[in-house]
Each structure stands twice: as structure tokens, then as C-alpha cells.
Amino acid sequence: MKHIVALLIKYTAITAVLLMVLGIFQGISIPRVLLISLFLTGAAYLIGDLFILPKYGNMIATMADFGLSFFGIWLLTSLFTNLDATRNIGLSSFLAALIIGGMEIFFHIYMKRLV
């Protein structure tokens, strides 16, 4: 049950960030943002929160989550949307990953204490 609550918190936070960055600045539809958030949440939770965080600590897990978010958002946005090459998805991915990375610091504290 604790993992379900943690996943919902993480999914909600990532979705909020991606709705702001991808939805508003890139004009990506809400269903696609929700799909990108779902894949990103699953991968980040398994890799960053369950594997890296317990072994290496908050700082390394946050850096890993930043990298995973950046490349994940870039890749998933390229796969699931029809954006042309003139849109700078790299900058949007970096901005979203930076915000998600800042959020992850606090989420990792929550994970270490309660999950």
C-alpha cells in the first residue's frame, strides 16, 4: 500500500510539471502528457527510487532521476507526438527535468522515511 501511495504522489507531481512545460509551452495534448508521465513515473520509480536510492543515497538518486527525466521526456515526446524539428523539445525537456529533479529531493526524503 505504501508503494501505491508513493507512486500516486510521484505520478501527480510529474504530471503537473509536464502539463505546465509540455502542455503549455509545446502544445502537447493532455492525454499524451498523461501517457508520457505514466511511462516516466514507472521507470523513475523502479530505477531511481527502488534501486539507486537505497544503495547510493539521495544525491546520486536525484542526479539519476534528473538524467532519466531529461532523456526520458525527450525520447517519449519524440515518440508520442508529431512535433516538427523547429520546436526545441530539448530545452523543454531540460526545464522539466530540472523541476522534477528539485522535486525528487523531497520525494526521496519521503521515500526513506515512510516507504
From TrEMBL:
<keyword id="KW-1133">Transmembrane helix</keyword>
<feature type="transmembrane region" description="Helical">
    <location>
        <begin position="89"/>
        <end position="110"/>
    </location>
</feature>
<feature type="transmembrane region" description="Helical">
    <location>
        <begin position="7"/>
        <end position="28"/>
    </location>
</feature>
<protein>
    <submittedName>
        <fullName>DUF2512 family protein</fullName>
    </submittedName>
</protein>
<keyword id="KW-0812">Transmembrane</keyword>
<dbReference type="InterPro" id="IPR019649">
    <property type="entry name" value="DUF2512"/>
</dbReference>
<feature type="transmembrane region" description="Helical">
    <location>
        <begin position="60"/>
        <end position="83"/>
    </location>
</feature>
<keyword id="KW-0472">Membrane</keyword>
<dbReference type="Pfam" id="PF10710">
    <property type="entry name" value="DUF2512"/>
</dbReference>
<feature type="transmembrane region" description="Helical">
    <location>
        <begin position="34"/>
        <end position="53"/>
    </location>
</feature>
